[in-house]
Amino acid sequence: MKRRFASIWFPYLTTDWMSAQRPALRNIPFVFAAPIHGRMVIRAANPSAEAQGVTRGMVVADAKAFLPSLEVMDERQRLAEKLLKAIGLWCICFTPVVAVDEPDGLIMDISGCTHLWGGEREYLKHIVKRLKGRGYDIHMAIADTIGTAWAVARYSKVTPIIESGSQLDALLSLPSAALRLTEDSVERLHKLGLKTIGSFATMPRSALRRRFGDTLLLRLGQAIGYEEEFISTLKPIAPYEERLPCLEPICTDKGIEFALQKLLEALCRRLSNEGKGLREATLRCHRIDGKTEQISIGTSRATANVPHIFKLLALRISQIEPALGIELFVLEATKVEDADSIQEVMWSNKTGLEAMELAELLDRLKSKDSSCEIYRYLPDQHYWPERSIAVASSITEKLAIDWQIDRPRPTRLLATPELITVAAPIPDYPPMLFRYKGEVHPVKKADGPERIEREWWMDEGEHRDYYYVEDDKGRRYWLYRSGYYGDDHAHKWFLHGFFA
Prior knowledge:
The chain is 28% helix and 28% strand. It is an alpha+beta fold. Keywords: DNA damage.
């Protein structure tokens, strides 16, 4: 795929922003100024000030001398940088590859994106219209290279879209400064009468290198296309992402569902072809007012099943506030894992934890109630009951050791043992009855004790003597006495679990 780049230039970035904040300033000449070597120097001027001869770098006192009505404001630290970053993040709705081009521009890799808006011309017109609607005066150009797009956006008065392979023709009439050269290099070129790129572009490279070094050749090569140039994106590129722009803003749940279905079909087709499935997904809805709504879901195992994922996301569509309308939908698989192929699952006839139906059921339960937490426990290599189980990382995680089955263990183990009152005849005998939460439980059957020593290398404390007891209603419990009988321990009994 042929790479295409767009360059956006904001000639009045900070002053346009101030005019948007204070509309009364739109027709008033004003500047931002900062102290330099003891003098207030103009750092940015709005169009009204420039029209009356005020320029960047001029001393404020000199400007006020011929324009007394000039309004002067202190320059805000890093304002341009913050504005470019904010606008760049907004531009990610048009392409995932956006980079800040300080001090007053953005660079976008638009390869493979423009067809979603009906072609490069419509793409450019849409972005320019949106940014001008926010109050910014902008110039934008599209070309095969960053260098040509940058030059055309700032210096060309003709078409802003350069046909593929026509970089040199577009550059010939532009001034030498359009190659992003230093002021010193431009001044040296002008002294030799080389004021346009065309006046030296076809000169021998050896001659240019002797006079101007490698920088000039590098910039020229980058602009024409025989030198590579890379940009540092504002956000990492998502490896699994699908986009769907809208011809008209979407405001209804039905419209969102339709967009979601289209995105899922494209994303899951790609995941299936690569033998992968998603574990987490996020749907971002970019509204026409610049704000973004999003919903996210997770799955118990990697899946590319469109109907299942659609149901999970559809349960949360009510959380999306479309306001005046959504203009772009972006679906990203934020976590992806290898998955069984459809054919293998079809013939495996797996049941239990391996069954896809179980994983999908758990996903639906969690999606319906955000407070729902579902855990699977595996045995851990500890005898101490609280440490003998661990939470599994996934529903399909394999056992590292087997469950202990030589001694009975409760189906439900309390996270913290609860103190109970017990009546026991003599030491080492099981209790005759116990009181738990105000209810008395006469013991009809009992077995024990089973002594479990504390793991001394992990913590200190007393051992436990466990008993398996059944009350008069057939309910079974796991009780223990902490430590030995004595004055301090005679009544320290605890309930630690329940048997099925």
